[in-house]
Amino acid sequence: IEIEESDKHKTAFICEFGQYEFNRIPFGLTNAPSTFQRAMNNILKTVLYKFALVYLDDIIVFSNSITHHVTHLEAVFRLLKQAGLKLKKKKCEFFKEELHYVG
C-alpha cells in the first residue's frame, strides 16, 4: 500500500548509509495491519463471505465442488491482479479439503 507523499517523512529512519523513508506501508507501523486489512477487504469485497475470506495476507477460497472452486479461484485471482497484487507460489496451497488458518 502506497504511503501518501505528504506522510512519508513520518516513516523516516537513519542508518549508516543515510536517511530513508518508506514508499509503502511496512507492517511495523502501528496502523499497518488495520490499513492492510481494510485494503484487502475492499479489493475482495465482491466475493468476500460468498466464497472467500481474508485475514491480512491469508486468503481462503471455499467451494462445494471442484468446478466451482476453479471459477472462484479465477475470480479472486482477477481481483488481485486488478489491484496490482501478486501471489507467491511457495506460500499458496490449492484444492485442500482441510487447512490450518492463521497459524
TrEMBL record:
CDD domains: RT_LTR (cd01647)
Keyword GTP-binding (UniProt): no
Family annotation (Gene3D superfamilies): 3.30.70.270, HIV Type 1 Reverse Transcriptase, subunit A, domain 1 (3.10.10.10)
GO BP term, example: proteolysis
Signal peptide (UniProt feature, chain positions): none
SUPFAM superfamilies, A to Z: DNA/RNA polymerases (SSF56672)
An example Gene Ontology molecular-function term: RNA-directed DNA polymerase activity
Pfam families assigned: RVT_1
Keywords associated with the record: Endonuclease, Hydrolase, Nuclease, Nucleotidyltransferase, Protease, RNA-directed DNA polymerase, Transferase
Stated name of the protein: Reverse transcriptase domain-containing protein
Provenance organism: Daphnia magna
